[in-house]
Specification:
Distance between the termini: 50 Å
Radius of gyration: 21 Å
Number of helices: 13
Order of helices and strands: HHEHEHEHEEHEHEHEHEEHHHH
Structural class: alpha/beta
Helix content: 25-40%
Number of strands: 10
């Protein structure tokens, strides 16, 4: 009986040991990869990458549905995830202890793996009379989950037009919930920050006439002055079947890893992503945006040693801790 109780106690303790400590690139453990909501690009693309890495190397990776950038960083900090998708702005907030992380303090026990693609700020509406960001004043607008990266992106965009949170009737919803609310007429517009095409928006566009609100040159310039981590971006009309191209801004989508994930495991992750670009693209359109120059462009958070090793083989030097 005592032996049985001891075995149960040991099993219970092992259940709480972070997965990275139970194994890594030798195949004895699984790296948990925090992505985003199941209707977002993070999860769709992350799942493709995880399956490819697991099938082509000794490193096992599983994509996990999550609440997005901030959640991924916090779960990584606790040891629940070993990899995570993040926006470049949120990554900077965490590393420097600002904005989302002002109260909890800086999180610095992670490193950059690679920047993969751009995430567009998409202001989605079914109302053709909402033509500019200024038209959102007084409207009911979903600005992302409270405290999320999308929330801060929305405040940045609205702020460029001198619109505050109190000037709109804000709701705090995920991509999927925002789409449902748009369909039901409960909100007038929604901020969605994800790689376009985004599943939630594509689903909406399949049954409704969708409009994307553009940001004009003057306000983009003002935004970039205050928030230089944004980049101008144009979403082509054929992405969602809109009447015209949409001028907006974007932030980078980056994979990060806990510092204590093995160098070999991260090497497997990065080498698979860039060596198998063609196969990855066949499964997800975001594979087309994979580019070594962009991947190595992050300057705010140093790179993981495993990523640096792969990029060095390509003739590119990146900063490490």
């Amino acid at each position: 009986m005592k032996k049985k109780l001891l075995a149960i106690a040991i099993a219970a303790m092992l259940a709480f040991v972070p997965l990275f400590a139970q194994g890594g690139s030798d195949g004895s453990g699984t790296l948990r990869f925090g992505t985003g909501g199941d209707q977002g690009t993070y999860y769709g693309f992350g799942n493709v990458l995880a399956q490819r890495i697991s099938s082509e190397t000794d490193t096992s990776v599983v994509a996990v549905v999550s609440a997005g950038s901030q959640d991924n960083i916090e779960m990584m900090d606790m040891g629940s995830y070993q990899l995570g998708f993040v926006q470049t702005d949120v990554m900077s907030y965490a590393y420097n202890g600002t904005n989302l992380f002002a109260e909890t303090g800086a999180v610095t026990d992670f490193s950059t793996v690679a920047a993969l693609y751009m995430e567009q700020v998409q202001i989605v509406t079914l109302d053709p009379n909402i033509k500019t960001v200024a038209d959102l004043k007084g409207k009911t607008v979903s600005i992302g989950s409270s405290g999320s990266g999308v929330y801060y992106n929305a405040l940045d965009i609205l702020g460029a037009y001198d619109i505050t949170e109190s000037d709109i009737n804000p709701t705090y919803q995920s991509f999927g919930d925002s789409v449902d609310a748009l369909q039901d007429g409960k909100i007038d517009a929604a901020f969605v920050v994800a790689g376009a095409p985004t599943v939630a928006v594509s689903t909406l566009a399949a049954t409704h006439k969708v409009y994307l609100v553009s940001i004009d040159d003057e306000h983009i310039e003002k935004l970039l002055t205050d928030s230089p981590y944004y980049s101008p971006y144009t979403i082509k009309a054929d992405v969602y079947g809109t009447d015209a191209d949409c001028q907006t801004v974007a932030v980078g989508a980056v994979i990060i890893a806990r510092d204590d994930v093995s160098e070999d495991a991260i090497y497997d992750v990065v080498s698979t992503i860039f060596n198998d670009k063609e196969a990855i693209t066949a499964s997800h359109d975001k594979g087309r945006e994979l580019d070594l120059g962009f991947a190595t462009s992050i300057t705010t958070v140093p790179y993981h040693a495993g990523a640096a090793r792969y990029f060095a083989e390509q003739g590119i030097t990146v900063p490490t801790k």
